[in-house]
Design brief:
11 helices, single chain, 6 strands
Length: 309
C-alpha cells in the first residue's frame, strides 16, 4: 500500500466502517471485449484483483467481505469459458493455501458459499474443501467467495440442511428448526453477519439474486466501471458514501437466539464439516511455487495503449 492509500484508509476510520461488505464482481467480459481482448483475459484480471481485495480489507479493517464470483446461471455460458473459470477458482484456492503455508495469512478465514458440493467438478471440490479446512479457525477477518450460488438456492440449502431432523409423528420440521435465525445461518459453516453495504460493479442496476435475505437492509452502491477497473479508491469512496447515508438505512435488529437453536445449528454444521474434511483428504498435493494470475504481457500492453488513447 502507498502512503497516500494508507492516509486514505486512516481517514475512513473516522466514521463507521461497515462490518460486512458484499460485492457483485460484474463486467469482466465487457472489459475484455471493449479492449478487443479474449474473454479469459478479463476473468484473469478480475481474479487477480480479488487478491488485492483481501489486502484492502485488512487495511480498511472490514471484518467480512463476500464476493459474488460465479452464479449458478453462469453454467449456461460456453463450455470453454466455464472450464476456464473453474480452473481460475482452483488456482485461487491453491494460492490461498500457499499464503497460509508461507505465513502470510494468519488472520483471515476464507469460505466458499454456494452449491459447490453439488455442482462443481470433483477435483475442484477437493481443493475447496482443503482450503476451507486450512483457514477454518483463522480470525478476526473473514472472506467469503460465492461460487455456484444464487440467493434462492442458498435458502433451499438452509431448509435442506434440516431434512434429516423431522418430527417422528408428523414428518415435518420441528417448529424451532424453521426459525429466522436458522434459515439465515444453516447454509453457512460459520455465522454470517447481515450485509451493511452491497457494491455492484459494471453499471447494471440489479442484484442478480445475490444475498437477497442478507442484504434486505443494506446500503446499495452501484459502480459504473467494470470489476477489472475497480480500485482501492473506489472502495474508499463507497465507504464514505455509506458513512453519509447509513443513518437513513435501517439496521437489521438482532435475531433472538435460543440455546436449542444454537445446538441444532452446531449439530448440522458439524455433520457438514465432517463431510468436508473427508473431501479435503482426497485433494491432490500442491507445490509451493508462485502462481501466475497475470495475463500475458502482450494483452496488458494492448490494454494500456487503448486506455491511454
Amino acid at each position: 500500500m502507498s502512503i497516500l492509500e494508507i492516509l486514505g484508509a486512516s481517514i475512513t476510520q473516522m466514521g463507521k466502517i461497515p462490518d460486512h461488505v458484499a460485492i457483485i464482481l460484474d463486467g469482466n467480459r465487457r472489459y475484455s471485449r471493449s479492449l478487443g481482448l479474449p474473454v479469459e483475459v478479463g476473468h484473469k484480471i478480475g481474479v487477480s484483483l480479488i487478491h488485492k481485495l483481501l489486502q484492502w480489507q485488512r487495511t480498511l479493517h472490514i471484518k467480512e467481505i463476500t464476493a459474488y464470483l460465479f452464479s449458478i446461471e453462469n453454467f449456461k455460458r460456453s463450455k470453454a469459458e466455464v472450464e476456464n473459470l473453474m480452473e481460475l477458482v482452483f488456482l485461487t484456492c491453491t494460492y490461498f493455501m500457499q499464503e497460509i503455508d508461507a505465513g502470510n495469512n494468519t488472520d483471515m478465514c476464507i469460505q466458499i458459499i454456494g452449491n459447490w458440493e453439488g455442482l462443481l467438478p470433483v477435483k475442484l471440490q477437493h481443493r475447496i474443501a482443503h482450503m476451507m479446512v486450512k483457514t477454518r479457525h483463522l480470525e478476526p477477518y473473514r472472506f467469503n467467495i460465492a461460487v455456484a450460488y444464487t440467493g434462492r438456492n442458498a435458502i433451499l440449502q438452509s431448509l435442506n440442511a434440516f431434512s434429516g431432523s423431522k418430527d417422528e409423528i408428523t414428518g415435518n420440521l420441528r417448529g424451532c428448526e424453521c426459525s429466522e435465525y436458522l434459515i439465515a445461518q444453516a447454509q453457512h459453516l460459520v455465522d454470517m453477519s447481515p450485509v451493511d453495504m452491497l457494491i455492484r460493479t459494471g453499471g447494471n442496476l440489479r442484484l442478480s439474486d445475490f444475498m437477497m435475505w442478507e442484504t434486505s437492509q443494506a446500503y446499495i452502491h452501484f459502480v459504473p466501471e467494470t470489476w477489472p477497473e475497480f480500485s482501492f479508491w473506489k472502495l474508499v469512496h463507497a465507504i464514505f458514501l455509506y458513512q453519509v447515508h447509513r443513518r437513513s438505512v435501517e439496521k437489521m435488529p438482532d435475531i433472538p437466539i435460543e440455546s436449542k437453536e444454537r445446538n441444532i445449528l452446531e449439530e448440522v454444521r458439524q455433520c457438514r464439516w465432517t463431510r468436508i474434511e473427508h473431501l479435503a483428504l482426497k485433494d491432490v498435493e500442491y507445490d509451493g511455487g508462485n502462481l501466475d494470475f497475470n495475463p500475458p504481457s502482450k494483452y496488458i500492453e494492448t490494454a494500456e495503449k487503448i486506455l491511454r488513447f
